[in-house]
Write the structure tokens for this entry.
Amino acid sequence: MRVLVTGGAGFLGSHICDFLINRGDSVICVDDLSTGRPANIRHLLELPAFEFVKADVSAGLDIDRPVDAVAHFASPASPPDYHQRPLETLAVGSRGTEHALRLADRNQARFVLASTSEIYGDPAVHPQREDYWGNVNPIGPRSVYDEAKRFAEALTMAYRRTLGVNTGILRIFNTYGPRMRPHDGRVVTSFITQALNSDPLTIYGDGSQTRSFCYVDDLVRGIVAMIDSSEAGPVNLGNPRERTVSELAELVLAITGSPSAVEYHRLPVDDPTRRRPEIAKAQRELGWLPQVDAEEGLRRTVDWFRSRPDEVAAAATLVAGEQVGGSGAVAFGQLQAS
Ligand code: NAD
Ligand code: UDP
């Protein structure tokens, strides 16, 4: 197959590119490098089966080579990233998704949308099943991401219903692993970076909110199974083991052996109180189950960050600045509840 991966230089996208190349597919990776990094794909650039196109998919997606599948992963994903790029986030979820769908339609290709557990907002139903419609604030600070993805899902279904495009929607829950940017502001990277720098771990709120964390290798197997199938979805992908943010902090401290303390900070506006995927559909339709537990996944991730001490040290100021009100904190700091 020749697969076009938008957002292919990002965290998830670059792992998808690796997986596809390793099994013998060709990949066209389209990325504007807004939150992705050339280092994520540098090892692929010389391969004949890999092509990198630097482009903003919100502006257009004019690829003239035939493709068999389009995996649409371009979008800021970390809350600080989408708070800093609200208009770009809405654009890539709407116009960017339409450009990717049109390309799939022209090529009669399989189309897979990277949607998100944010579809469920602050969920009133727990765990979250795909038939739950969600509880989303349509005008809050997170809405630029949540509503962009909800629109992207609606657009995907409209292309399927009206034009017969072979579409599939994945709702991805919190995923972590090597290649995340140490300063991307997501909780796993923040805690690991802070622990390795012996800085305090910044818990937002009282730490009782929950998330369910999936290791990237598990997730990528599920994504590729979705690309290979003709399942319409939506299908949840995530690890159903749920834990509080405080428990995650303890686990990171235990795995790193760090002397760091924990510090409590204001909870961001509309921060969901709980998240756990119901994954029976992924198991049934894709034969998918996660295999890597958090202890093992975090150990692998910590090892990866440890092998990049300069980046981790440099992230200390950026993490503190973006999240807890230091210099450069304006965008995210203003979005936190009192
Ligand atoms: P990431 O920020 O590492 O990757 C996103 C990539 O998209 C980056 O390389 C960025 O440069 C690129 N991009 C952004 N806007 C673009 C545009 N207009 N044109 C071209 N490229 C653009 O984030 P990620 O964690 O790898 O997330 C990838 C996708 O998966 C996103 O769509 C995200 O919403 C979805 N997702 C991720 C998670 C997670 O836990 N990682 C959870 C739910 C959904
Ligand atoms: N969080 C935290 N400290 C941090 C970063 C995040 O306590 O330094 C919390 C955040 O408020 C949320 C959870 O961790 O409750 C997961 O946050 P993340 O940004 O990783 O993902 P999302 O909120 O999109 O699920």
User: Anything to note?
Assistant: The chain is about 40% helix and 15% strand. Residues 122 and 264 are 21 Å apart (CA to CA). The chain has two domains: 2-174+213-237, 182-212+242-273+293-337.
